[in-house]
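Complex record, two chains
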Amino acid sequence: MRHACLRALAARALTGVVLTCLTAGLSSSAAAQEVSKWDVFGGYSYMRFDSRPLGFAGSSNLNGWNAAVAYNFTDALSLAADASGHYGNSITAYTYSLVPQYSYRWERSRAFAQFLIGKAQNTVNIIQPTRTGFEGVGLALGGGAGFDWDYNSRYSIRAIQVDYVHSHTFDHTQNDIRVSAGLIVHFGRSHKKRRL
Amino acid sequence: MQGKSAQIRSADRVRTGLPRKAVFAFAVLLILALAACGGGIITSPASHLLFVSVTANNTIAGYRVDNNSGAFTALTGSPYFAGNSPASLVLHPSGNFLYAVNQLGNNISLFNVNTQVGSITEVLPRTPTEVGPVSIVMNATGTLLFCSNVFSTSISVYAVNGSTGALTQVSGSPFKTYSQPGQLVVTPSGKFLYTINSTISSIVGFAVSSTGALQALPVTPAPYPPTGATIDPQGKYLIVINPTQNAFTMYFIHPSTGALTTVPGTPLAAGTGPIAASVQPDEQYVYIANQTSNNLSGYSIDQSTGTPTEISGSPFTVTSGPLFMQWDPNGEWLYVGGQSGKTVSEYEFSADGTITSNSQSFVTVQAPTSIAVGH
């Protein structure tokens, strides 16, 4: 009950902050700025892992990290190499993906949508006489969106990134949700931001 | 240069001070909220675990069954390595421990069951039995486990540690009995234990003390050599298979003395090669698995006299070579293990006693030999 209340409060707070961020970001005054050539992202990531197809009693909450290196071809089109690792009591889940991104930029913020294609590497940590875990490797597909806010010309904050990850391991399909947030470091300057 | 940079940062703060704080707050809240979820499993209660011994392959297959659809999902790591010829399975009432008697190993394996993940992990060393253990059964409270030893002509009784599942032989165990004790059954009250003994064509009963000591009851001669047996969930009837006559016999169990009295109308004809019996949890119907004719004979139980009467539509065709049966926790589905078909199939129970295929099944590498179903 206490947890439910805390989560409800957190959800309301999050909703308020997200709306504030979006409103502020969208209403920023337009000014020409350069888009970096390279963006390096790293941060915390949560995954709601679909473990029922593996015989679990339900889905699993996993905590971990998400990192990506993105090359911005234009101010709108980018390609990222994305990796994430998530850990739970009985499951370890890694994804390695190539991620085309489409960005919509404002003066100090960016919203983006992305598509993921790559590899999922999941391990169920079960101790057996002959082994300590069962690993499944398979295709990972997915898509998502996120919102970045520019702290300054060097650093940005990824306020939120939400992805749906569809993986196929252990001869079963998993439909996972990944939520990430963290820091972005920019390198190089190449493109002018579009005026909005 | 430094002054210019400071001016820009200052301007940034003026123009975007609220978002900056908001974004930080958002990131912190997001991380806290998600981290609060922990690394656990969001349990859905609508499933139960099912384990099947595959004796010839020395393995135990594990599945999770969806309570709504009846769909089987193989547990990761299944089939699991077991002892030498696991032949009879028992799941502790808590669901946390699985026991397998290893016929050729002369011991009992204990497995810890991770009910969330569904996996089982054996706890070594195994518990020794006498020679030729064939059948294990546990009382309803999970405090005592009984094992019949066919070549030692004895019954071993073990006290169960409720925390660890460990077995400790009780004082006086093993208890001697008649030649070649077979399948064991225990009443839901835990007061009486019976072993089916085909060599003397009898049912041998014992009164079970609170410490697990066995006191022999008068032997009940069977009209024909008995093999498989079952006791209904309320402990009113003992049902025994008579394969030589393609029949079965029902007995009333006296609740105080454990004495057996034949139910009027039995022995009653079943199909060809009857091998196992099971009473539906609502106590309205009893089913006999006929291994040679590949079907189940169904009978309604007269609630006043106990007399079984074959129901309309019986026998019901099932998987090839049915060897054992077990009901799901809600009494909606019947799992039937097929020896020659090497499958475990699921059948839906209707209120009129009809059994129909639910189109759910799984295949085992070798013939499945026994089953344990969780709650």
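Note: Confidence is low (pLDDT under 50) at residues 1-18 of chain B.
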